Amino acid sequence: MAASFGRDFWEEAFDRFERSGLTVAEFCEVEGCSVPTFYAWRKRILDQGQPKFTELVVERAAESSSIEIELSGGERLRLTGVVDADNLQTVLRCLEQASC
User: Fold this and answer.
1) Among 6, 37, 46, 68, whose CB has the most other CB atoms within 10 angstroms?
2) pTM (two decimals)
């Protein structure tokens, strides 16, 4: 039964779902899983993709600096030049909210 399969199964299932053109209910019927299980796995996978942040306190801004931030997905964001605390805080807030 599909509901007992792990993360690899569900990642592939979500790819199939996106290509299928079916509703969630129709897709789940074809795959042999429940709608709540579909949504639970989708949330679990999406939540694990969210970057995790640690508080960073900048005591003083250097004349010229470079900061590189590596996100959990492997993407890198490099800030060069003058990176003051306010600008860094704005960038981190945007990344955390993922809406900028």
Assistant:
1) 37
2) 0.46
**Are 47 and 7 spatial neighbours (Cβ–Cβ below 8 Å)?**
no
Digits of tens for pLDDT over the chain (100 positions)? 454 578 888 989 999 999 999 999 999 999 998 999 999 998 888 777 655 566 666 666 556 667 777 776 677 778 777 777 777 788 777 777 764 4
What the block records as the tokens of 10 is 């569900």
Neighbours of 40 (CB within 10 A): 13
Type of residue at 24: V
Q: Are 13 and 2 in contact (CB under 8 A)?
A: yes
Ramachandran angles phi, psi of 46, nearest 5°: -65, -40
